[in-house]
Specification:
single chain, 269 residues, alpha/beta, 6-stranded mixed beta sheet, 4-stranded antiparallel beta sheet, 38% helix, 22% strand
Length: 269
């Protein structure tokens, strides 16, 4: 019998820690994310999940540890080298982060014009292709103020995939959406991951999204990884933190009042 082929992680965190104003937000995290999977990071507000995402994208650098993207430690490279690595991934934001003064097509064109020297005719073709993938063909000339919140999320997704990235990072992709529109976004994330062979890293506390899209799920609590597993493993976990969180129970080891006080203290408010 031949040995199983070992696949190297596309993202690997080793002993990563990050502090703000003396408060440790990420505490000695080790994590591997593999090519082609949709990896979901869940946790309470202030748990450190968004900080973890920012460390993976290079928006923050850790005080300790390494953050490897396709084998390159982005925690220790120069800003110029980091910019090159960033060309290989896309990012969607909680509130879409579209420029209100630009049309839908101009918002999608931003990363293409910033990072390539393609002719306008080629850029137009790419924009139409990306908008078609998210179901927005025909909305090129609209302004963000003229479309719905769910459509703005989809424009943000089209922009994130404009340069055919290997990795797309999602920060609360269904935040502020009703369950039906949120389901549409979930379907798009999974569909694009398969069609475009994208590795997706999703930060969310939306339980519907967590189990709809996650190939593997990690829970973060107080800057530490509580557990990593498949949807079935997380559903059936004996860990009381996970059971309290996924079932939304007020009683349990997570004291939500203290969590909020911890956020305030960490921000120095």
């Amino acid at each position: 019998m031949s040995e199983a082929v070992k696949i190297d992680p596309i993202i690997s965190l080793r002993n990563v820690s990050k502090s703000f104003q003396g408060n440790k937000i990420i505490d000695n995290v080790n994590l591997d994310i593999y090519p082609g999977e949709t990896f979901v990071i869940m946790g309470c507000s202030g748990s450190g999940k968004s900080t973890l995402l920012r460390l993976m994208t290079g928006a923050l650098r850790p005080e300790e540890g390494s953050v490897l993207i396709k084998g390159k430690d982005i925690a220790s490279i120069s800003e110029a080298q980091l910019d090159e690595v960033k060309k290989g991934f896309g990012m969607t934001f909680q509130y879409s982060a579209l420029l209100d003064s630009l049309s839908v097509e101009d918002n999608v064109a931003l990363p293409i014009k910033e990072h390539t020297k393609l002719a306008d005719e080629i850029i137009d073709i790419i924009i139409k292709m990306k908008l078609a993938l998210v179901g927005l063909r025909g909305y090129e000339k609209y302004l963000p103020s003229q479309i719905s919140g769910g459509m703005r999320k989809r424009v943000g997704l089209a922009r994130a995939i404009a340069l055919d990235p290997d990795i797309v990072f999602y920060d609360e992709p269904t935040s502020g959406l009703d369950p039906v529109v949120g389901g549409v976004i979930d379907h798009l994330i999974k569909d694009l991951s398969v069609k475009l062979c994208i590795t997706s890293v999703v930060v969310t506390h939306d339980m519907q999204s967590v189990f709809a899209i996650g190939d593997r799920i990690a829970m973060v609590h107080k800057g530490k990884i509580v557990e990593v597993g498949t949807p079935d493993e997380i559903r059936n976990s004996k860990n009381p933190y996970i059971q309290q969180f996924i079932n939304g129970k007020p009683e349990g080891p997570i004291d939500f009042f203290k969590e909020d006080i911890g956020i305030i203290q960490a921000l120095g408010l």
